[in-house]
Structures are given as C-alpha cells and as structure tokens.
Design goal:
Four copies of one chain form a homotetramer. The first copy, chain A, is mainly α.
Chain lengths: 225, 225, 225, 225
DNA sequence: GATGAATGAGACTTCATTCAT
DNA sequence: CATGAATGAAGTCTCATTCAT
C-alpha cells in the first residue's frame, strides 16, 4: 500500500517542521489535531482507537490509512508535531509574563487546567518514557532529528537564556545543567499534583511559591557565578 | 466469582506489607513476580496479556482469575507490592554507604543498570501518571492507604531524616518540601538518562556529581536553618 | 461501538414489520435467517454460539457485531422477526383451506413436520417463558410494541374474527378469551406431541379430530351467544 | 471415574421413586434440593453453574462429581425427582379444597407466587420442551420409565378421576383427552401470565374465573356422557 | 470420602487493517 | 481520492471437570 508522501522524509520519519506544516495534507493535520484533542480531553493514549481518531478528525476510517502506515504513526506523529507547535505557543504565552517567577508560576498554575498547552506537556511526559510502541516510534522520530533538541528542553533553554544571557555569557554545560534542574523542579510539582500527593502535607499554593522561588534562586546563582 | 482472600484488606485494597507477604498465597506472589519480571525485561505494561503473565508465572490462565478480579488488579497489585518491597531493599542497600553523597550517587548509578530495583522505580513513574486503567487502580490502592505515604516518598523521607534528625528537629513542611526537592533532582537524572538526552552536552559522570552535590547542599542548608 | 441502524426504531426495539423488512440490511437478514435455520435444525437456542451463527450466515464473526450489540439481540431479534413473518405466512396458507376445521387440522398436521413454520412456533414457546437473557430481551421487544398484539395472538384473532365477524359482532373480552381457549387447545396438541406422550393411549389422528371439533364447538357456541 | 451408585438403575437412568428416596445418598438429595431452590428463586436453568449448585447444597464442588457424571445429570435428575415429589404434595394440598373449581383456582392462583410447588411446575414446562442437553437427559429419564406416566399427567389424571370415577366409569381415551384439555387450559393461563400478555384486554381475575368454569364444564360434560 | 485449587477449552467481544465501491 | 463495510486475529474472562491432598 502506498502512503501519500508529502515530504521526502515522511516515509521514514514523518518529521514535521514549521515549514513542513504548510505542506502537510489537511487530513494529516486533522488526524493530528484529533489525537491531541482526545488526549487533552483525558483519553488514555494506549487505548485510543482508530475509529475514535478518524471520527474526531471527521474523516473516514479507511482514509487515515492513506496517510499513515498504522495507528502508532498517527499517535507518535501527533505528539511529535504537537510538541513543536506547543512549545512555540507556550513560549509566546510566557513571554507576556513580567518576571521569571511569574513565568514559572504560570506553568505550574496551568498544569492543573485541562485543555491547556502546558498540561499537554506534562501529560505527554509518561508517554515518552514508557515502553509502548508509540513511545518507541516517538523516540525514533527524535533520533531522526538528532541535531535538534527535544522541544521541551528547547523551551526550557530559551526561557533560561532569555533570563541569563543579557547579564552574563554562560558556558554550555552550566546552562544544560540549569535546564535540567529547572525542568526537574517542574516535574516535581507534576508528580506532587498527579502522582497522588503521596502523603505530603503541603498545600499547592505553598508548593508553587517555594518551587518558583527556588528556580529563581537557581538561575540567580548562575548569573552571579 | 469469589476471590481467594488471604488478608481482610485484600478485597478492598490488595495492600501488601512486609508482614502480609508471608500470608500471600504463592500464586499471588507468582503473578506479581511474573508481572515485575516482564516489566523489568522491558515489556510495556499496557500491552501485557493475561496469557503472558500466567505463562511467566507458570500457572494456568484460568488460575489467575481465582486470585484477581481482572488484569488491572494483577498489574496494579504487582506494582504496588513491588514498590513497597523495593523501597525496603533500596533503603537497606543504601544504609551500607558512608555518606549522603554516596547514597545519592548509588541511586543514580543504579539507575543506569537495567534490572535494578531503582530503574524499576523510574520506569514505573510514567505508569502512575497516565490515564490508563492500571494507573487508576494503582491510585485507588494508594488512596485506600491514605494514612501511609507513597513508598517512594517514604524512602526519601527516611533517607533525609536519617541525615537531619540527629542534628536538628525540623518542622513537617520543610521536610516535605525537601523530600520533593531531592526527588526532583533524582528525576532530573532520570529525564537526562531516559527521556532522550535531547541534545544536552553533559556527560553522565558530571551529571551525577552535580546532582549529588546539589542534594547535599539542599540538605545542609536545611540543617543550618 | 455504533450499530448500523436501518430504521429509527431499530436501536430501541429492533422491531421489524413487513415494510421494514425491505430496509433491513442484508447482513441482519442473514443473521436472522441463520439463527432460525439453526433453531429449526434442532439447535438449542441457549447454547447457540456467535461463531455458529456467523458461520451459518456466511459472514465474519466480527461482522455481526456491526449490526448487533450482543448475542442476545441476534437471537431475540431473529425470533421476533420470524414470528411476525411466520404469522403472515401461516395465515396465508390457512386461507386456502375451506373450513375452520380444516384450518385447525392443518395447523396440527403441520406441527408434526419438522421444519414447518408452525412447528417453529411451538418450539419457540418455551423460549418465551423461561428466564434466560434471550427471553428477557424478547419480552422487552414485546413491551416496546405495547400497542400491538403478540404475533401468535394476532394470528389466532384473525382466524377467529374471519369466522365470527360475518355472523355476529362480539365484545372484546369474549373474543380475547376465545382466542386463548383456541390457543390452549393447540398447545394441548403440542404437549401431547412434544411433551413426552406421558403414557396417554390416544393416537394422533383421534387427537387431531377431537381438538378440531372442540375448537369448532367453542367458536360456534360464541356465534350463537 | 466411578460414580457412587445407590441403586442399580442409577448409572443408566438415575431414576428415583418414592421408595428409592430413602436409599438416596444425602449429598444427592442436597444437590437436588439446591437445584430446585435456585430454580424456584428464579435462576435460569441453562445458566446455573456447578459452583452455585454445590455452594447452595453446602458441599464441595468436587464432591458432586462423586455422585453425578456431569452438570446435566444434576439438573435433569433434580427436575425429575422434584416432579414426582411435587406431584404428591400438590395433590395433597389440592385435596383440602372443597370443589374442582376451587382446586383449579388454587392452581391458577398459586402460579404467580414464587416458591410455590405449582409455580415450579409451570416454570419447568419450557425446560422440558426445549432442545437443551438437560431436556434431552430429562426425556431419557422419562423413557427409561416408559411404564409410568409423566408426573404432571398423572396429577391431572388423579384430579379428574377423583371427580369422575365416583359418578361414572370412563373409557381410557375419553379420560386421556380430558386430561390434556384441562392441562392445556392451565398452560393457557401460564402463557397469558408469563409469556407477555400479548395485548389481550382480560384481567387476571376474569381469566381465572372463566378457565375454572370451563374446566368444570369440560369435566361435567364427560360425566354426563 | 470429601474437598477446592488448578486448569484449559472455548465463549464473547473488540479493533486494526484491508479493499471493493 | 475517500470511504466504511467486512473481517479475523487476539484478548479477556468463565466454568465444567479433574485430581492431589
């Protein structure tokens, strides 16, 4: 069965960049949007059915197989595509906040809200770390793009560089470590929120405050290095 | 369809403590061990089949339904059971290390080895955060034990209290937040290792050093509060 | 799991009238015919399997679930559908007989032949009276059509009204009771034939004569009321 | 596997007469009673499980296979055994009623009540007429006892002979036919009650009155022959 | 003799994928 | 191009029956 290619890389990696986005057939876009919509609505990615996806995308079940070899490609592709786009949007949204503290607080605050781009990030994390076929495919897509950073990392990097670069030029390793530290603090909040509070006695308000403050301190200490 | 109970709490929460372990019917143990074995071998928890589990456990497919209401109970139960046992073992292992730095370093080093109890934790995290039936069931088990902390949290707490208590009495909130901070640093390494390195230029050795140092600093700063 | 509807009432009652028969998807017809065929061949309705039904219908096992929610719907629907159609046919057949006596005799004679529409009725009676899921579903179909009579009753009513109306106008209750009386005499023959003769010394010929005569007497006595 | 025989006929027909009842091992009795109890409570005979039966009988699931070759033997045996005993009891009960009318009315009135021996009769009828393994086995038991009448028929015969014999000696054929006629009137009420009223406008009170009256008339007309 | 733990055959049902229209 | 009807592989779960204790 021949797949409608719209890009030479497609067959192999189905890699979508912003530029490729324009070339993407509308049905592919529709499928991606459908997967994301269902995911954001709370569906478990592992139990999504092709029927659901096609239905939500408003196209025939058979049609999706004109554009995708199998279900995993749909889901992995959608996550990958969304990650990129999402990062742009989140970055744009955060740019409107005044300070680093506010930006981080916004991330944490938005995590709870359904249908937020930020909550999408958090909920997508486990999918990227398990051993399912989808995550495997997703990691392939990643690898095929070895030169670029994972979108989440890139987002973090941009947020941090915006903060630090005007003040001080940093070596790569310090920045990289800072990125991971900040990301891990955010994940920490996610674990606290979604992974069952785990018996801790902290309220969310306090949690957010402390985390944002600590992130700011992490960044400041680098600035002063 | 009566389930063979081996403990009054079983039906409700299928909660297993060390003491209950003795009372656990051997077939239940076998199923748990099978699930964990398959998981550690790299299987995706969401696509485990009852046939696989029963096969690995060396018992008949029908037999597992004498002890479990459905597949989700098997998997969630196994994870839950393993979490508890795992924590005990990891704690015991770490006790042999001289300093907090060494203990943390050991955790991180173990993470790299496949088939390590610690790598089990990391790989189990996503399962606890997605929206699958298993994760739902797992959270129920959690809730049914509201009085107890999540095992990972408890492990962290013990490690930290062992360090801090001899020196200074701490209020609950500070300890709780410290637990999360330390956990987040560990997760940070996990993201670095498993989440697709994402183009970062740090080598593992350096990562571990920095993380352990930071953890020690976090703890020390609390001590000196 | 959307079911292919072919009629607005379908989802709710799966009610099939002669007119609806045309609109019925061929696969639904095939399933109904398969169930009836198997039933007439002597299969026990309670132990029919979906595989058997699909096989007999000449379609894939999965296909039947495009048209039916579950096995019970197939069987109950088939019985219901056959009942209606059967009544029409029997009525048409009987119209060719000269007298009420001959018509009743024909019913009884047909009962002996396997694979007769009338024998279908008799064999279907127990299914309607037991406590199986199928009978439950069948009674639901019935209820959903509260305004209409059960097809057997309707057949009886028509046979009797054809006989009586030309002579005398009857009140509803008398007709209703007469219907049941006539039906009971027919059941009487069925019990004699199928219920294990139970040691009775009557031969079939005599049985039929007496029953037909009694039915005629019942009807005549109403006429002369 | 050897079956515990308690009677030479057992292996073949498992026939139980009143006298054999004494010899019947208590576990067999318990199983029979359990089946009947479950049946009277409304269970569908086709979906009874061995576990249910053994549980209700208060004996081990394995134990029943010491006394029965398979599930069908349990159910068929129970029905057969109960039919005989039941007939005795119903006959005794009815003897207390003053007139034939009252006796018939009692039958009809009891039909509705759960846990009545009479309702057992009616509900057992369909089982005897379908094509299930149980009904097959039941008919075998019947045949093995060819010399005796079906218990229901015998009950009817006794009721009618009690009425007619004192007045007039009858030839066998007339009595036999009368038996069937009376039985069919009773079944008719059962169909009306349980088989979905079928759209008839008659209330139960009237139905019973008419049926009893007609039965009395049937019997009287024979008396006066 | 009695038991119930163990089992595997087989039932129902879902769903990714194909293919004729 | 697009579709959705058709399908069979595969999964979950039930339960009659066996057998070691």
């Amino acid at each position: 069965m021949k797949i409608k290619t719209f890009n030479p890389d497609y067959e192999r990696g189905m890699v979508i960049t912003m530029m490729e986005c324009a070339k993407m057939p509308p049905k592919v876009k529709a499928v991606y949007r459908a997967v994301i919509a269902l995911f954001v609505e709370g569906a478990d990615l592992n139990s999504l059915t092709v029927a659901e996806i096609a239905g939500k995308a408003g196209i025939g079940k058979g049609t999706v197989y004109e554009y995708f070899k199998n279900k995993e490609q749909m889901i992995a592709g959608a996550l990958f595509y969304q990650m990129k786009e999402c990062c742009e949007n989140v970055y744009a949204q955060l740019a409107r906040e005044k300070s680093l503290y506010d930006r981080m607080n916004k991330i944490l605050l938005n995590m709870d809200k359904e249908r937020t781009e930020i909550s999408f990030f958090i909920r997508a994390l486990p999918v990227m770390m398990d051993n399912s076929t989808v995550s495997g495919r997703l990691r392939e897509l990643w690898k095929d793009r070895g030169e670029e950073e994972a979108p989440v990392m890139e987002l973090m990097r941009r947020l941090i560089e915006d903060e630090v670069k005007p003040v001080k030029e940093l070596n790569g390793k310090d920045t990289d470590y800072l990125i991971l530290t900040v990301l891990s603090r955010i994940i920490c909040y996610a674990v606290y929120r979604f992974g069952g509070r785990g018996g801790l006695g902290l309220d969310e308000e306090t949690m957010r405050e402390r985390i944002c403050m600590d992130i700011c301190r992490d960044v400041d200490s680098i600035k002063g290095l």
